[in-house]
Amino acid sequence: MTLYLRNAQPNDLDNLTELMYEYIVGFYQKPRPATEKVHALIQTMLEEQKGIQFVAEQDGKLIGFATLYFAFSTMKADKITIMNDLFVLEPFRHTEVEAELFVHCQNYSRDHGYAYMSWITATENKRAQHLFDKLGGVQGDWVNYSIQ
Question: CA–CA distance from 114 to each of 40, 110, 145 (Å)?
Answer without folding.
Answer: 25, 6, 24
